[in-house]
Specification:
Radius of gyration: 21 Å
Largest sheet: 9 strands, mixed
Strand order of the largest sheet: 13-12-11-7-10-9-8-14-15
Number of strands: 15
Structural class: alpha/beta
CATH architecture of one domain: 3-Layer(aba) Sandwich
Strand content: 15-25%
Distance between the termini: 12 Å
CATH superfamily of one domain: NAD(P)-binding Rossmann-like Domain
CATH class of one domain: Alpha Beta
Order of helices and strands: HHEHEHEHEHEHEHEHHHEEEEEEHHEEH
């Protein structure tokens, strides 16, 4: 499998970021049917996979663009599908995204995916195989291998892609990127990122229950191993806690909070990952996690740069930080420790610089934000390229998912060979790089 080019995994250059807020364009189309531009009436004809919860929010945001026409709706939950259908009565309804993409064919230009994590790659790849643009919720995929493949095929096909990290385009995150790349805190020595959320589970094993009439449970499971339905544990909201379906707190919030870290520092692939968390339950994620990454230096970091993630109520030690006495950390965010100063980026608020007196008389610019959803639509219709495209989102997700894997093997240092997509020193962890899809749910190019 071809390794991604350096240009596809790099972040934004400061000049390009400040000038346009757009990253480098996608590769030239190779096998396009609808790679740029919408239908003949200048509309982007959209089919939506997952239309409840975050899917309903995504659909509302995408359809608010004046050039979007919703023509297809898909959900395994008939109640949610009905609610969406009432809002978009002209859209055809489906319970299986494979049938929707095949049946609607050339009458759709783009697909958005907002399912549980274990279905992201299957739905997104099915759409790209059909030549459709794709907007996919975060984290981009459930497995490292899936992230690599989505990035590869997006590049090969030239379709317009965007991961649903909507605050990637927000003024707060863009401003932090510009300040860091502008050298305000010097080179970054370390970053500490955290979330107080707890997407773990330490209770009794779920009790099987009859499947509700409105739910297509087999389609909900999709690529995942077969298991009984259990009320209140999987659908509609608690699937993030389970290894087969979600990626825990790191998958939910880490992808948001680490996004500006990767963009600002132009991070590449980690070389080593180690977790100092407690051992997790066999089938679910741990309640509290702490993971430390080592990365090669970039132009914005020192040679010994490290990134540490904390969740579930764990927080970094602020004793050596240049913050005022009694300063309280926000519930979620990142602290960039530089050679000259430090930058705190709360989730979601404007960045703060420390020590405060150092910047008392410094005039600081603020970078304008954009509508992450509409930027994707505009790109599909021939506008500026997206900045959270799969060429960027794939490597970011790979790094995050290596941390999710490390949390399953506390204290075991994992050595990562990105070129060969291999954890070279621990075969148990390597086995989690790629899962086998359930029979009948295999997808071409995955």
């Amino acid at each position: 499998m071809a390794r991604r080019s350096e240009s596809s995994q790099s972040g934004l250059s400061r000049r390009r970021f400040l000038a346009t807020g757009a990253a480098a364009g996608m590769a030239a189309p190779l096998i396009l049917r609808s790679a740029r531009g919408g239908s003949a009436n200048d509309k982007l004809r959209l089919a939506s996979v997952g239309v409840g919860g975050m899917g309903a929010s995504d659909l509302a945001s995408l359809s608010s663009h004046p050039k979007v026409e919703v023509v297809g709706l898909c959900d395994v939950d008939a109640n949610r599908l009905g609610e969406a259908g009432n809002k978009f009565p002209n859209a055809k309804r489906f319970s299986d995204f494979r049938e929707m993409i095949a049946e609607l064919g050339d009458s759709i230009d783009a697909v958005n995916v907002a399912t549980p994590d274990h279905t992201h790659a299957a739905a997104a790849m099915t759409a790209m195989n059909a030549g459709k643009h794709v907007y996919c919720q975060k984290p981009l995929t459930h497995d490292v291998y899936e992230s690599r493949r989505l990035a590869d095929i997006a590049k090969e096909t030239g379709v317009v892609t965007q991961m649903g990290t909507q605050i990637h385009s927000a003024s707060e995150y863009r401003t932090a990127v510009s300040w860091i790349q502008g050298g305000l805190i010097g080179k970054v020595k370390e970053v500490h990122s955290w979330s107080n959320k707890t997407w773990g589970y330490n209770g009794a094993a779920p009790t099987p229950n009859p499947v509700p009439d409105f739910l297509s449970w087999d389609l909900w499971l999709g690529t995942a191993p077969e298991r009984p339905y259990s009320q209140g544990h999987y659908h509609p909201a608690d699937w993030r806690r389970w290894v087969d379906f979600g990626c825990g707190t790191m998958g939910d919030m880490g992808i948001h909070i680490l996004d500006p870290v990767f963009t600002a520092l132009q991070m590449k692939d980690p070389t080593e990952v180690i977790s100092t968390s407690d051992a997790p339950p066999e089938t679910s994620h741990g309640m509290q996690n702490r993971v430390t990454y080592k990365y090669p230096a970039t132009q914005y970091t020192t040679d010994d740069f490290e990134l540490t993630w904390y969740d579930g109520g764990l927080f970094p030690d602020t004793a050596d930080w240049n913050v005022p006495a009694g300063f309280g950390l926000p519930g979620q965010g990142s602290m960039f420790i530089g050679t000259e100063a430090s930058l705190l980026l709360p989730h979601i608020a404007m960045p703060q610089l420390f020590p405060q007196d150092k910047f008392a008389n410094v005039r600081l610019g603020r970078v304008e934000g954009g509508n992450h959803y509409h930027l994707w639509v505009d790109a599909c219709l021939g506008g500026e390229p997206t900045t959270a495209h799969f060429g960027y989102a794939g490597p970011l997700t790979e790094s995050l998912l290596l941390g999710v894997i490390a949390n399953r093997f506390p204290t075991q240092s994992l050595t990562w060979d990105a070129e060969n997509m291999e954890i070279t020193n621990f075969s148990d962890a390597q086995a989690m790089i790629r899962r086998q899809y359930r029979k009948g749910f295999e997808v071409e190019n995955l």
